[in-house]
């Protein structure tokens, strides 16, 4: 830790925040590529890559570097390393208080917890701040602060240099105006963020059968800016898919935590975003960043597991040394002309692959060496496959093949994956999540496990899956654990099927998905922060404390062995958590 702080001080003194008022346009400009950098791993990045790079500090470990777009080519994995290219994240969602034991808990006068004095942080699509569920009975706002990354102005958060920050006073002024958007012009065009905020901390509306979990908590909201076009193109993401960058999520979380410290309140943060671009072991930059933040006193970070369990987008292979290879069959749909596929191997082996196209054209074995970049073309097809290979990815230590398809021919593609080793080894391949690819592209022999999305595989944050509290059944689309290192995720299940939440029309509708479950669990985390920190019962409470308390109180279903890859340690039951606490006193 001391070494990291010294690195931070050295970099700060040498470069400062480096970003100036004149240079901040690079954050949103398509003429500059965003590169993530962790100083204690790569402190001399600015020196090595020369002039023209602007440096924006996120915290004492991480920064975003803005590189002229001409330097970001198809060889970017070789030039900057895989981990430095911001991962792209999508959304994880499309009568719960009783199910989680909240109603019963509130019958105990000393435990009538509603998140009072705490904050709930949302990093997502924004919020409809005019919705009545985000206003107190006197009409004033429940939103303590709002950072809209999409609105360019001079009123950005200190040190972050982009977007527009709106204060509680400005939002109240807008709410008292006949034209609120003329004062606070931030909206939620999607509705996902509004839904999450409502479930976690919306004010109660009994007439509509709606009850926010931590109804007296205040909100701090970040509206993420869309991913830059160059990065969408690099990862072959459809133009109509909702898509956000890893570094913007990191700056968003930084803003939430700084705001909480400024206001002197603990904060529960909901992240209902996910990505399948990773080794699924929690070693990527965002997972590491959230693990660090989750250890800080007063922070509770809750993440959705994702909805990839039935999507057929994961393949798990085993290579017997006698045969020497495993055959993977991928069905490519008619409309998926561009997409990305990642193969992650075991650190004990060197991997190679050959390719057979739907028309029968054969590409002989491709070996990456220590690292490599190849462009594969076909004689009878217009398909182009760009392959990047690293023998030892900087964080996981494992080999990675990154395959990016352009004009992909529909039909069955066959890949033979070879391993140069005298023992049995395995590998995993993941396709993109959610709307990043259609349901018509899938593995013929998929593995539904190890499908929890990043950053749900992070070590410290709470990873939540979804279940239907009406019949105690698990949400069928929910991603399954464990991590690729066999660490337990998800941690537990929370209500996530047909949960009533606010819409952009100021009505209410049922929503389902693990993002819904994460929002519910975030409200519960705010309740525990109220009890533990504000009530002085556990004044040094952090994410790990809350996770362990909720795991200990989780309800186990009969005929299930725990922990398991579907339910983790069971079903969220905060009433039982306090029963366990009482039994330990």
Which band does the percent of strand residues land in? 25-35%
Helix content: 10-25%
Q: What best-fitting shape do the alpha-carbon axes yield?
A: globular
* Strand count: 28
Q: Kindly report the oligomeric state of this protein.
A: single chain
Low-confidence stretches: 1-17
Average pLDDT metric = 90
Query: How is the main sheet built?
Result: 9 strands, mixed
Decide which structural class fits the backbone.
Answer: alpha+beta
Q: Quickly count the helices.
A: 13
N- and C-termini, Cα separation: 34 Å
- Rounded Rg: 24 Å
Architecture blueprint of SSEs:
Elements lengths: L1 H14 L16 E7 L6 H5 L4 E4 L4 E7 L7 H5 L7 E4 L4 H4 L2 H4 L13 E6 L18 E6 L15 E4 H8 L16 H10 L16 E6 L5 H6 L9 E2 H18 L3 E5 L1 E2 L10 H10 L4 E6 L9 E6 L5 E8 L6 E6 L6 E6 L5 E6 L3 E7 L6 E7 L9 E7 L4 E9 L5 E6 L11 E2 L18 E7 L4 E2 L17 E4 L3 E4 L5 E4 L2 H21 L8 H11 L20 H11 L1
Parallel strand pairs: 5-8, 5-10, 6-8, 10-12, 12-24, 24-26
Antiparallel strand pairs: 1-3, 2-3, 4-9, 4-11, 6-7, 13-22, 14-21, 14-23, 15-20, 15-22, 16-17, 16-21, 18-19, 19-20, 24-25, 27-28
Helix pairs in contact: 7-11, 9-10, 12-13
